[in-house]
Design goal:
The structure holds two protein chains of two kinds. Chain A has strands at residues 5-7, 10-13, 19-24, 31-37, 43-50, 53-56, 65-69, 75-79, 88-95, 105-106, 110-114. By secondary structure, chain A is mostly beta strands. The chains are: A mainly beta, B mainly beta.
Chain lengths: 115, 111
């Protein structure tokens, strides 16, 4: 079946603008995760959704970052008033209790560049 | 929270030789340890994982070992091939959802 998809694949924006990044998880996966990967770095956890609720938002770096998930499916990560240090690849992953919640399947990522 | 350290950061091996990557973790409650492979410009893909109730797991040329007492786990790739060239990430989880990742190891297999 289809894997995790993300859009856009690339986004260039100017400092101070808002951006929205979209994630479509694998159909039926109840858990959804957002990560950030800076150049040459590991994956930094941002937020976890179980259904439409977010039990763990501890990784969001500032109040400029927010995320929502509607209908237990699509999720949107919003970054307000973007800064140059927000430039990174934003990865989404999903998982299912059937496979074990820890088994996370990643999307291709959105590469964000803030000028 | 959990802290995962990964070594080495880069690894160059001759085709056919073995590659070993080591990770340590800080939270003794961690019970799930996956390894992901990320090729340039691609998404991370799970290649193998191990849970705390076993000490070793193998899948063809790939194996992972876990030492809970020492809080470290390792990835072993035997008979390396050019297509094994990628960045490898280890991770650990002490609950049923949050993965803490190492910084990654760039593996280059020389033909």
């Amino acid at each position: 079946g289809a894997g995790v998809s993300q859009s856009p694949s690339n986004k260039v924006t100017e400092k101070g603008k808002d951006v929205e990044l979209r994630c479509d998880p694998i159909s039926g996966h109840t858990a959804l995760y957002w990560y950030r990967q800076s150049l040459g770095q590991g994956l930094e956890f941002l937020i976890y959704f179980q259904g439409n609720s977010a039990p763990d938002k501890s990784g969001l770096p500032s109040d400029r970052f927010s995320a929502e998930r509607t209908g237990g499916s699509v999720s949107t990560l919003t970054i307000q008033r973007t800064q140059q240090e927000d430039s990174a690849v934003y990865l989404c992953a999903s998982s299912s209790r059937l496979a074990g919640l820890e088994t996370q399947y990643f999307g291709p990522g959105t590469r964000l560049l803030v000028l | 929270g959990e802290n995962v350290e990964q070594h080495p950061s880069t690894l160059s091996v001759q085709e056919g030789d073995s590659a070993v990557i080591k990770c340590t973790y800080s939270d003794s409650a961690s019970n799930y340890f996956p390894w992901y492979k990320q090729e340039l410009g691609k998404r991370p893909q799970l290649i193998i994982d191990i849970r705390s109730n076993v000490g070793e797991k193998k899948d063809q040329r790939i194996a992972v070992t876990l030492n809970k007492t020492a809080k470290h786990f390792s990835l072993h790739i035997t008979e390396t091939q050019p297509e094994d060239s990628a960045v490898y990430f280890c991770a650990a989880s002490s609950n049923d959802y949050k993965l803490s990742f190492g910084a990654g190891t760039t593996v280059t297999v020389r033909a």
